[in-house]
Amino acid sequence: MSEKTTHVIVVAGAGPAGMAVAGSLAKSGHEVIILNRDVKFGGLAEYGIFPSKLKLRGGLRKQYWELLEQPNVHYLGNVSIGKGKDLSVEDVRGLGASAVVFSIGAQGTKAIGVEGDTAQGVFHAKDVVYHFNRLPGFGDRPFDMGKHVAVIGAGDVMVDIAHWLTRYKKVERVTAIVRRGPAERKYNPKEIRAVCANMDIEGITKEVERIKDRLAAVGQKPDEILKGLLGEFTKCEPKVSDTKMGFKFLASPKRILVDGNNRVRGLEMEDNKLEPKGEDTAAVGLKQLYEFPCDSVVFAVGDKVDETVGLPYKSGVFVTNPTKTGHDPDDALFQAYDESTGEILDGVFLAGWARKASEGLVGVAKRDGDWCAEVVSRYLASKAANSKPKAVLEKLHAILRERRSHPVDIKGLRALEAAEKAHHGKTDCIGEFKFATNQEMIRLIEQGKG
Questions:
Q1: Degrees (nearest 5) of the Cα angle 110, 315, 156?
Q2: Residue 435 contacts by C-beta under 8 Å, 6 or more apart in sequence?
């Protein structure tokens, strides 16, 4: 494309959704500027996948490097957007780009909403995942889990946390607390192989026996369910600790119990029964409460977006256009919208978890980015290309210099990569070595460039 027909698009966020948007628009010949809060690109692909999954992470990283090395793609990491950050939303919109896509993820944490949720020993799953993936701000933070950890949830995130607790923290016991029964477990059977060598088979058998009448009451067959559950514990990864892992089914945490030092000592739980709900089931409390002793609690209850960014926000999400446009994918779902004025934010789009928090992982985020790129392309087709890449980049760098920010470009990332490889094998990092603070990364980048 010539300068006359080339648009400049700013993509905020370099996770799977943002990289999909950037890749599609760059392939169409547009100039793309990627702004990323983290020094390193990847988002969930870098800081959400279990760090020992080197093949998956390596494949994604290779794709992203290839994108960033395109001459019409400009990467600036270590640039945060929000109130009091390196750039405000108004700064980004004022750069002169034809469109801005916010694919900044869901950085807020949902309130757990039970008494005692601020006690020592209560953690959000995302924070734990960030910790073992060494995201700056989390990687060097102490996570004192105690001997017995209760993980609320029955999905793949629960399995990843159990994986870390059994193989690396080597705690005495991990119990997954599940509101419904074993038939409603959500994790991928392949994922459970990471921890199935540590399963307390006797304890799990007793647990299904304990709730068998409540399962039978909705037409489920407890013996078959138990056989199916235990049947998934095959091809287990070798056992490396004596940690025992089990489940507590048909159980809802109602209150976190604390000691005199405001430290977790257990959970007050409510027994549930199952009730049919269409083709599915729902957990209904029986008002029967009991205490469940544990030393820490990890809640995997989803995320919300960060309301301090400066985009129109309501009830945990950034607001999108309520008026459908009839396109496929529908433009309205991706357009930022200001309810106070009743107007679309012209040229501002949302993708990935910034659009729909906690919805799927890498594959879903990439698909959402692809859809967003289609919507942006339709928008650009109706606009004259009046933005000049050089002018937009010069304005951006001038603002960052004024704010004394330290943006990291692709050359800096290559210097960091070399420093990481030099340290590989020298620490107790899971998977590949990562520096846990931005300050250390910036220092090594400056050294490497010099």
A1: 35
A2: 134, 136, 416, 419, 420, 423, 441, 444
* Residue type for position 13: G
Segment 446-449 long-range contacts (CB within 8 Å, at least 24 positions apart): 447/415, 447/419, 448/412, 448/414, 448/415, 448/416, 448/418, 448/419, 449/411, 449/412, 449/415
Structure token digits, residue 57: 């992470």
Determine the Cα–Cα distance for residues 149 and 176; give it in Å rounded to an integer: 9
d(CA 270, CA 267): 10
Residues 364 and 400 in one domain: yes
Residues 6+ apart with CB under 8 A from 398: none
| H and E: helices and strands count for the chain | 13, 18
Answer yes or no: is 418 within a domain: no
CA–CA separation, 359 and 106 (whole Å): 10
222 assigned to some structural domain: yes
State the residue range of the domain holding 377: 8-107+304-408
Whether residue 276 has a cis bond before it, omega within 30° of 0: no
Structural contact between residues 79 and 407, judged by C-beta atoms closer than 8 angstroms: yes
Residues of the chain with pLDDT under 70: 1-5, 425-427, 449-450
In a domain, 446, yes or no: no
Instruction: Please report, to the nearest 10 degrees, the dihedral formed by the alpha carbons of residues 282, 287, 292, 295 taken in order.
Output: 80
| Overall domain count for the chain | 2
pLDDT at res. 5: 66
Are 380 and 374 within 8 A, CB to CB?
no
Six-digit token string for 4: 């006359």
DSSP type of residue 330: -
pLDDT at 4: 45
Q: Distance between CA atoms of 86 and 46, rounded to whole angstroms? A: 22
Task: Please report the pLDDT score of residue 425 as a whole number.
Answer: 66
CATH of the domain at 218: 3.50.50.60
